[in-house]
Write a structure and sequence with these properties.
Blueprint: H1 3-9, H2 38-45, H3 60-73, E1 77-81, H4 84-96, E2 102-106, H5 111-121, E3 127-131, H6 136-146, E4 150-154, H7 166-176, E5 179-183, H8 188-191, E6 201-205, E7 219-223, H9 228-238, H10 244-254, H11 257-276, E8 281-285, H12 295-301, E9 310-315, H13 320-329, E10 345-347, H14 359-365, E11 371-375, H15 381-393
Parallel strand pairs: 2-3, 2-4, 4-5, 5-6
Antiparallel strand pairs: 1-7, 6-7, 8-9, 9-11, 10-11
Helix pairs in contact: 3-10, 4-9, 6-7
This protein binds pyridoxal-5'-phosphate.
Pyridoxal-5'-phosphate binds next to helix 4.
Length: about 400
């Protein structure tokens, strides 16, 4: 089945009450389940038989979403989590369960993931190191020497859109016995399937493109056969699972992912070209740029015309106050955090996604005071341009 069909059908129309098959998976709110025989319930509690017992362990609406994401990412199994960050946390715990407690992470990653590593894992004696994952020679020798328990990268990095060679990194990781976790939030399985390239665990903030409408906070962890049981075991105990209503909304969102994301990628590409020619713009970061530092990887892994829907740009001579007043002048674009919604979002990394990253680390990441990030929505691109133009003209 092609991606466009799979998003509509995978995981759905499986449940039946014995009389009819619902055409969309219902929202099952029940927290507990029982059967005609207590012996059956005993076997289900003991994991000897498949079924539902308590919704912290598994539930029918979540299971449908998990089946859909396992299919889209070509994984062995999935877990729907309460947020993207709880998914990232579980992925680290599962990867480090029986490996050395050390992480090698790309420094081009979401600020809260840096926070999770530095503030939550480091105090528990997890050794954390950051590296430029686009420098493959440095990555290979660091992995060979350190043999970290786990390696973490984003398929398209937040916010400067660097693209590492996942296939090569996965090869280095395999040789060193390290687990490779890839945050695939920005690319979605429509652009990239890291598990097919050799990653072990893929995480998503489902809050973004998967749910797609700015009304769900959620995450997904899709694992290979080696890690799925560990992910589920941790979740059975700690229980940061997605609620059934959010699962339903996420699954409903994914049905239009192919349509939305194609339009968002087209809009992002047009905006990047337009911004590059704009007199108030110093520099534009976007994956369709032939001068992108990772252009070779992008050509190799991305389908033509599909370069993701996030772009970043630096406003000429703007300091923090100038960027904030540019945001205040936007009329249609929503000047809020997040990405992946049907409406265009403008985010200022300095005050939101990378606010808690130290100024030194921000500088190393290449995040400057005049950098803004746009997540293109599905609106008419002329309206997005006109809104940006009005707001920019008064700032330069
Ligand atoms: C790349 C990336 N990963 C993970 C997350 C965390 O997701 P959530 O906010 O759903 O916890 C975000 C949030 O912006 C993100 O941009």
């Amino acid at each position: 089945m092609k991606f466009e069909s799979e998003v509509v059908h995978a995981g759905d129309r499986k449940r039946t009450d014995g009389r009819a098959i619902p055409s969309t998976t219902p929202i099952h709110l029940s927290t507990t389940y029982f059967y005609d025989s207590a012996e059956k319930l005993d076997r289900i509690f003991g994991n000897e038989e498949e079924g539902f017992s308590y919704s912290r362990y598994a539930s029918p609406t979540n299971e449908a979403l998990e089946e859909l994401m396992t299919s889209l990412e070509r994984g062995h199994g999935s877990l729907a989590t309460a947020s993207g960050m709880s998914g990232v946390q579980i992925a680290f715990q599962a990867a480090l369960l029986d490996r050395p407690h050390s992480v090698l992470a790309s420094y081009s990653i979401y600020g809260a993931t840096v926070g999770l590593l530095d503030d939550l894992l480091s105090p528990y004696d997890v050794e954390v190191r950051y590296l430029d994952f686009c420098d493959l020679n440095a990555v290979e020798s660091a992995i060979q020497q350190k043999k970290p328990g786990c390696i973490f990268i984003e398929s398209i990095s937040n916010p400067l859109l660097r693209v590492a060679n996942i296939e090569k990194v996965a090869g280095f990781a395999r040789a060193a016995g390290s687990a490779l976790i890839v945050d695939n939030t920005f690319a979605t399985p429509m652009l990239m399937r890291p598990l097919e390239l050799g990653a072990n665990i893929v995480v998503h903030s489902a809050t973004k493109y998967l749910a797609g409408h700015g009304d769900v906070l959620g995450g997904i962890v899709v694992s290979d056969g080696q890690h799925h049981e560990a992910v589920r075991r941790i979740s059975r105990i700690a229980g940061p699972v997605l609620g059934p209503f959010e699962s339903y909304l996420t699954m409903r969102g994914i049905k239009t992912l192919a349509l939305r994301f194609q339009r968002q990628c087209e809009n992002a590409h047009l905006l990047s070209e337009w911004l590059r020619a704009h007199p108030c713009i110093e520099r534009v970061y976007y994956c369709s740029d032939p001068a992108h530092p990772d252009a070779r990887m992008i050509q190799q892994f991305f389908a033509p015309g599909m370069y993701g829907a996030v772009l970043a740009f630096e406003i000429k001579g703007a300091d923090k106050a100038a960027v904030l007043s540019f945001m205040n002048r936007l009329k249609m674009i929503v000047p809020a955090t997040s990405l992946g919604d049907v409406h265009t979002l403008l985010l200022y990394p300095l005050i939101s996604s990378h606010r808690n990253v130290s100024p030194k680390m921000r500088e190393r990441m290449g995040i400057r005071e005049n950098l803004a990030r746009i997540a293109a929505g599905i609106e008419a691109v002329e309206d997005i341009m006109s809104d940006l133009d009005n707001a920019l003209r008064s700032s330069c």
